[in-house]
Specification:
The complex is a heterodimer of chains A (211) and B (425). With 211 residues, chain A is α+β, with helices and mostly antiparallel strands. Chain A has a single domain, classed as Glutaredoxin, CATH 3.40.30. Chain A is 33% helix and 25% strand. The N terminus of chain A is likely disordered. Chain B has a single domain, classed as Methylamine Dehydrogenase, Chain H (7 Propeller). In chain B, the strands form seven sheets. Chain B has a four-stranded antiparallel β-sheet, with no helix packed on it. In chain B, strands 4-5-6-7 form a four-stranded antiparallel β-sheet, with no helix packed on it. Chain B is globular and about 55 Å long. The N terminus of chain B is likely disordered. The chains are: A alpha+beta (211), B mainly beta (425). At the A-B interface, helix 5, strand 7, strand 8 and strand 10 of A face helix 1 of B.
């Protein structure tokens, strides 16, 4: 992987994120509270590394707070993967910042599943690119070993792509998942590629916070 | 390493989870697709009493001509007993395959990632009816993010009122969503993520689908107990929005794959009609009868469909005449028959590869609806498709191999599953 190319891809994502060109939508977002968000699963608290290199809780939620947790890696080249997620999360960040009743109660967490390459310094750089306006935290792990139980807990698959010669590459195959976590560590929704619509995430957030 | 190369490699393995969907073309839009040559076909197979071990089993068949196991049985995992093995589906990460039994509502979860050539049974759900509040007959298994959605056929009274059921990927029950009162029957459930819409179709309850077919056909009262509706849902909220009248038990649903194509197809089994479900300008949907499938007066019983990745060819298999008919659906409101071929004495499931070059068929529908004779032809047949005709590649006789009745097929690939874990240390 060439760092310059990755930075370029990220820059494209960030540029799109700052001026999101939303595809035509064929549906309206539902009225918050008009539907149920049953508990899908529950997750534990985990300690990772913040962008300043200090230990930090993955969720760290206070009373009546919720989190939107995403797992990415900065070298991702799939336009429908991590760059898309970052673009949509940046849109969500800007929407949250404009809504004071939500801003203090919603935490965005973006954690890397590529701890070797995505050091705290690289996550700090990503944070700088994304320029968060709400409570958006950028985390990584000290090692693969420390990250493994986190990925298992969230059911986030990550696997190295094998080249035609049977050799491992540094390209990571993963299914994009963004998790909506309530204050009790319960997974209330999971957004995937093709359905990470910030209007739906906001409706879900309001459904949980203002039942 | 050149990055562009790896973008292509990753794309070739994964497909686009959000854009194109398929049989490989009919999979959930939330599931990564195998867009290259499949290595294996996982065949969920009904046991036959007195044949082999007599049990339902997951049979893995080699499908890659470059491998030595091409056209051969690679492995087989029996689950013990006969449960009316029917459909299966992958979790959203494609690491696990869920498979159900329509008779006693058992669900089996196989790990297909650790060794794709030898799936391993890792979980058995035995309390589906109890957990779901009386739903029975788990039919379609459809991946949502972190969730397996199961469309069922029946309930504890064995009638056709039924529900959609959701489990998390760990096999823990989440919720039951009963179908609306004006459309209580269930069969398939398919999502169009672009439209935030889900379609469900309708079949019949356990009283009917477990009954010997000749007996059922002779019972006029029982024959009234089949579905004649499809439901349009808001997928995100799981809210039913609209009930469409589609007489004659509409079964499989195939949304068009191009995200700009806002329609789906279904086939009505009892009336032998091809239907289109079209989104109208106001956002609602209409059901339109498009074509006969064979000669409806002879009840060919269309049972499965497969839509090509370019939305051009719709394969429709009909059980009683053993025939596949390929409709050109380039103009979805004016389909025409482009090709037909008798596959066997009976045919049920049809599955095509993402690129549409390979098409597979199996024979079995339901244990009590199949012919119960030595000559009933319990096969898996593989063909090449050149967009004009089918050419046979290989055939496996599941009865001669003492395996049972082959039903649904899913595709597997070895190098889809690299070493699991985070980035290199």
């Amino acid at each position: 992987m060439r760092a310059g190319r990755a930075a370029g891809l990220l820059a494209i994502a960030v540029a799109l994120g700052s001026s999101p060109a939303r595809a035509q939508s064929f549906y309206d977002a539902p009225a918050p509270g008009s539907y149920a968000l049953p508990v899908i699963d529950s997750v534990e608290e985990h300690t990772l590394l913040a962008h300043d290199g200090k230990p930090a809780p993955l969720l760290g939620l206070g009373e009546r707070q919720i989190a939107v947790v995403s797992f990415i890696y900065r070298s991702c080249s799939d336009a429908n993967g991590c760059p898309l997620a970052l673009m949509r999360l940046q849109t969500l960040d800007r929407e949250l910042a404009k809504q004071p009743e939500l801003a203090g109660r919603v935490r965005l967490v973006t954690a890397s599943f590529d701890p070797k390459r995505d050091t705290p310094e690289r996550m700090a750089e990503l944070r700088g690119h994304m320029s968060p306006k709400s409570d958006w935290r950028f985390l990584t792990a000290a090692s693969r070993r420390e990250l493994a139980p986190v990925l298992t807990d969230y059911g986030q698959d990550v696997a190295k792509v094998i080249d035609p010669s049977g050799n491992e590459t540094e390209v990571l195959r993963h299914v994009l998942k963004v998790f909506l976590i309530d204050g009790e560590g319960r997974v209330r929704n999971i957004y995937s590629n093709g359905f990470l619509d910030t209007r739906l995430v906001l409706a879900d957030i309001r459904t949980l916070l203002f039942p | 390493m050149r990055y562009g190369k790896w973008i292509a490699v990753v794309g070739a393995v994964l497909g686009l989870a959000g854009g194109a969907a398929a049989d490989e073309t009919c999979q959930s839009p939330f599931l990564p697709k195998l867009v290259g040559q499949e290595d294996f076909i996982y065949v969920w197979t009904l046991g036959i009493e007195g044949l082999g071990d007599g049990s339902d089993k997951l049979v893995t068949v080699g499908a890659n001509p470059a491998r030595k196991d091409y056209g051969k049985v690679v492995s087989s995992v029996s689950v013990g007993g006969r449960h009316e093995a029917h459909h299966s589906g992958f979790t959203d990460d494609r690491r696990f395959l869920w498979a159900g039994g329509l008779d006693d509502s058992q669900i089996y979860i196989f790990d297909v990632a650790s060794d794709p050539a030898k799936p391993k049974l890792v979980k058995h759900i035995t309390d589906f009816k109890e957990k779901t509040g009386g739903v029975v007959g788990p039919h379609s298994f459809y991946a949502l993010p972190g969730v397996m959605m199961i469309s069922a056929l029946s309930n504890s009274d064995n009638t056709g009122k039924t529900a959609l059921v959701e489990y998390n990927n760990n096999g823990e029950f989440i919720r039951t969503i009963w179908l609306p009162k004006d459309a209580p029957y269930g069969y398939d459930a398919r999502i169009n993520a672009t439209l935030n819409r889900m379609l469900t179709s309708s079949f019949t309850g356990r009283d009917n689908y477990m009954r010997p077919l000749p007996e059922l056909l002779g019972d006029a009262e029982a024959m009234k107990n089949f579905g004649d509706t499809m439901v349009v849902w808001d997928y995100h909220t799981r809210t039913p929005l609209q009930t469409l009248k589609v007489p004659g038990a509409p079964l499989e649903i195939r949304w068009a794959i191009n995200p700009n194509h806002h329609y789906a197809f279904t086939s009505a089994a009892l009336t032998s009609k091809l239907w289109g479900i079209f989104r109208k300008d106001d956002g609602t949907f209409e059901a339109v009868e498009l074509s006969d499938i064979g000669d409806p007066s002879k009840t060919p019983l269309p049972v499965d469909m497969s839509l090509s990745g370019d939305d051009r060819f719709l394969f429709v298999s009909s059980f009683f005449d053993g025939t596949v008919r390929v409709f050109n659906v380039s103009n979805p409101r004016k389909p025409y028959l482009a090709y037909e071929r008798i596959i066997g004495r009976r045919v049920n499931m049809v599955s095509q590869s993402w690129d549409g070059k390979r098409v597979y068929f199996t024979a079995s529908l339901l244990a009590n609806w199949d012919e119960n004779t030595e000559a009933d032809g319990q096969y898996l047949k593989a063909f090449d498709w050149d967009r004009s005709k089918l050419e046979p590649r290989f055939e496996l006789d599941f009865r001669a191999l003492e395996l049972g009745r082959p039903h649904i097929m899913q595709f597997g690939k070895i190098d889809f599953y690299g070493p699991q874990g985070a980035g290199a240390e």
